[in-house]
Automatic annotation (TrEMBL):
Gene3D superfamilies: Multidrug resistance protein D. This is Major facilitator superfamily (MFS) profile domain-containing protein. It comes from the Bacteria. Signal peptide: none annotated. Keywords: Membrane, Transmembrane, Transmembrane helix. It comes from Pseudovibrio denitrificans. SUPFAM superfamilies: MFS general substrate transporter. The keyword tRNA-binding does not apply. InterPro entries: MFS_dom (IPR020846), MFS_trans_sf (IPR036259). Residues 1-66 form the Major facilitator superfamily (MFS) profile domain. The keyword Membrane applies. GO terms for molecular function: transmembrane transporter activity.
Length: 66
């Protein structure tokens, strides 16, 4: 939506920074709330959620658009 390349680059940098903050925050919450084996199980479920979101979102977005 913008013809200026530097705006796109700046917004992508902001997007990457904010996603990194949320990922680190989520891992810190898991580390603080769970102990040993429960921590590993919860971290695995969190990783699955982070991976399947970008995979499923285009199909879900297309379905909702129609």
């Amino acid at each position: 939506m913008t013809p200026l390349l530097w705006v796109i680059i700046a917004l992508r940098a902001a997007q990457g920074t904010l996603v990194a903050f949320s990922a680190v925050g989520a891992r810190a919450i898991v580390a603080d709330c769970y102990e040993s084996s429960e921590r590993f199980k919860t971290a695995n479920w969190m990783t699955i959620a982070w991976v399947t979101g970008p995979i499923l979102s285009p199909a879900l977005g297309g379905y909702l658009q129609v």
